[in-house]
Write a structure and sequence with these properties.
The protein is mostly helical. It has one domain. The protein has helices spanning about 25-40, 45-65, 75-85, 95-105, and strands at about 1-5, 70. The protein is globular, with a radius of gyration of 14 Å. The N and C termini lie close together (about 10 Å).
């Protein structure tokens, strides 16, 4: 099990976050962005199942305002591969501050035992 931090203090002003999205929603939005960029032609099989599980977990984390998200190995790998695919996944320049905080958390995921 890997634990992804969700309770970031991004320090966004009203112009940068006009909808006043909570950090959990911001993380989910950027993970979804990276996944959809990497898999532009869609998903099937195991990848589709993995993304479906991730969507449910993120939606629950947003609803519950959870401070972290427990990830299985396949879920962690999917997110890391999307964020680290510099050929297919290009983030907007203005998002660098937020995306890099999320990227650092993703790159430094450590396995935790129960």
């Amino acid at each position: 099990m890997f634990v992804l931090k969700l309770d970031f203090d991004f320090g966004l002003n009203e112009k940068q976050n006009p909808e006043k999205a909570i950090p959990q929603q911001i993380v989910f939005n950027w993970v979804r962005f990276a996944i959809t960029q990497k898999y532009k032609d869609g998903l099937q099989g195991g990848l589709l199942r993995t993304w479906g599980r991730l969507q449910r977990k993120f939606e629950k984390a947003v609803d519950d305002k959870d401070s972290s998200l427990n990830l299985e190995s396949a879920e962690k790998d999917m997110i890391q591969k999307a964020f680290n695919d510099g050929e297919k996944v290009k983030f907007p320049v203005d998002a660098a501050k937020v995306v890099m905080e999320i990227q650092d958390a993703i790159d430094n995921l450590k396995e935790e035992t129960a």
